[in-house]
Amino acid sequence: MKDAAPQTVYLADYTPFGYGVEDVHLTVRLDPGKTRVQSRIRFAPNPEAQDRDFFLHGEELTLLWAKIDGAAVTPQLSDQGLRCTVPDGPFIWEAEVEIAPESNTALEGLYMSNGMYCTQCEAEGFRKITFYPDRPDVMAVFTVRIEGPHPVLLSNGNPVDSGEGWAEWHDPWPKPAYLFALVAGDLVNHPDRFTTMSGKEVELNIWVRPGDEGKCAFGMQALKASMRWDEEVYGREYDLDIFNVVAVDDFNMGAMENKGLNIFNSAAVLASPETSTDANFERIEAIIAHEYFHNWTGNRITCRDWFQLCLKEGLTVYRDSEFTSDMRSAPVKRIGDVIDLRARQFPEDQGPLSHPVRPESFQEINNFYTATVYEKGAEVIGMLKRLVGDEVYAKALTLYFDRHDGQACTIEDWLKVFEDVTGRDLTQFKRWYSQSGTPHLQVAERFENGTFTLTFKQRTPPTPGQDEKLPQVLPIAVGLLSPSGDEVVPTTLLEMTEAEQSFDFGGLSERPVASVLRGFSAPVVLERAASRQERLFLLAHDTDPFNRWEANRALAQESLIASITGAEAGPDTAWLSALLEVVKNAAQDPAYRALLLGLPSQSELAQALHQRGVTPDPDSIHAAAEAHRQTRAELWQADLPMLARETEVTAPFRPDAEQAGKRALGSSLLAMQSRLDGGAAAQAQFDGADNMTAQLSALTSLITIGAADSALRAFEKQWRHDRLVMDKWFGVQIAYAPPAMAVEMAGLLTEHPAFDMKNPNRFRAVFGALAGNHAGFHRADGAGYDQLADWLIKLDAKNPQTAARMCSAFQTWRRYDADRQARMRAALTRIADTPGLSRDSTEMVTRMLG
Ligand code: PHE
Ligand code: ZN
Hints:
The chain is of the alpha+beta class and about 850 residues long. It has 27 helices and 31 strands. It holds the Pfam family DUF3458_C.
């Protein structure tokens, strides 16, 4: 953890390990302060490797003894691992180490959470459990014996045998150490079964702490739906007799795809109507699917090295997005994904942390589980599929599974499959993996003699380490509409490969209106000087649901920017009237209408201003957004009650897309209503709510208008026993606080008896919310920056991974005025200068300051 000089690892330096592992036997004797791990590993020289240096990773381990072929050896130890002289041929390595799970606050390796033992090994946590070649290209069959006085003892694979105080597990599928898992505790299960497409019976379990058994049914249903979907859509069947899911309260990420034993942050699996919002249900369904889909894309076919992380993550995110589109509404899912991409990936790719989808160097791999690797990585798969077509994509995936099952692969392997299936050369396409930054796409149009010409120019601004950019392959989906709103050219895919390129559409009797980048067919910043009239036309007539939404989004952004910069006194009321007509159309999906009511976030507006060369002022952005919402509510006043009635759900609560859509629209309307009635409707909804979606949206409406004191007290009293609901209580008070109060509110809440900095969910509830309160965090006096820096420094000493991730709240610092920049730079420098700062946070702040 506390290396003197952090080392940089390069993709170009990859060499295979000198030894292969035949099999691994582990015996783990559990004890909070003195857990003993005994290993027996059969090694054999790897014929593919030159280097015979026998180095095993190991960190924070006490070595008790080691033997080779039964004879005691004395390896050379360092704080990274050990080195030993070994025989020329195959040999057996045995060792015993001692570790202390109770004092592991980094939540990596073997640790304890509320009295239960659990592990987290991705990416490099197995080296904190025993000495091992902890790299994904070393794959082995594991047999694990667990000893401890716990009713439930779990590991990967199938159960072999068990007795009083012990259990043995065997995983027949060779796997890298990062997929190892072990769980022990006083847990209860929600059991079920699944019959696979070939008729095999699989036992399914969701394991939780006693008291949480009522919150498993939804996750189980999502798991079975995912298993069926992967069979039907990708032809992938489950491959063990049992599939276990465990919920833990203390977890750095969302969930982990350990073979046959997925471990979940309890926030990403536990659900009930009373305690979870519709958004929570949708996220849980997606994460269950994501981890399950990893069984093939990640586990059966894994990554050669951590630079290839997007091989499993981009593809698996893409697969879970297809699943959600099939289970729910495809356009709604797509719009949500683009909102998220712009909120999280674009700032990353346009700032100091920008890196390629496949990075070429790192100091700490944990810092590269990013929106770029995951979400941009998924966009790249989506583009590839758009370019080759659905059928060819399906063929390529079948070939990928056939050819690479059981292997640790690279992006080259992945692209070669597509080249072999299509006969295409994907050399240029591969730039999506190596070139960082968001391409900007300019569009110009011309109409002459019945021919409409679109001319595109692409340009990617320089990013750290990459000054020159080459043109990328851009799939641009385009449709043309006649001035009366008929579609004269249906969606057509243009394939742009040059820096500048034109495309003609002939045989047109009148000048059409172009709908460009339908479905957001490439992750670019579209620069199009469309007129307000044209955008209003597309909002009314575009047949592509994404682009109708996008036209409205652009109108919203233009209107807000005009008031921020003082170009207009208030919102564009003609547009707001047109939008109201669309929102009143009862034939439209309520979820889609709710999306039309969303405004660009204040951070997104700051980025848009910055891109136009205007220094964003967080206070004016906040004021303009508030004024906009107030005007809109007043303008639509007469229609709100009727619209609200339409969103009422009378049937019993179901977390499906249909009901969720109605509630989402209802929540937006309630927020508007609250600005007019002093919160009466919101208070009534809060008092009568029988589900968390209704209760929480009422609460946030009340906070926004400053009328939530009694509701917040009632909420706390009702939910103080439920950690996940209390995370919401902590978060909303800060996220929706008036900017001038956000820092004080966060400070106050850290004194609350239920604040626990060691629990990542709770820490994020408070400080993620602070960073998300744009004008509150960017307070002119720098108090937001100082407070976050103070807490990140404190957290770093306990949990470097979560601290480092949250440092990215500062990544946009160069957007702002000189005074704010200086204050953010000072906060970052203070973090950087902290004695003993982790490698994780050191790398993050250095890149941001660099
Ligand atoms: N591999 C996990 C996923 O995407 C994420 C993860 C990474 C979890 C590292 C824990 C630690 O599903
Ligand atoms: Zn994943």
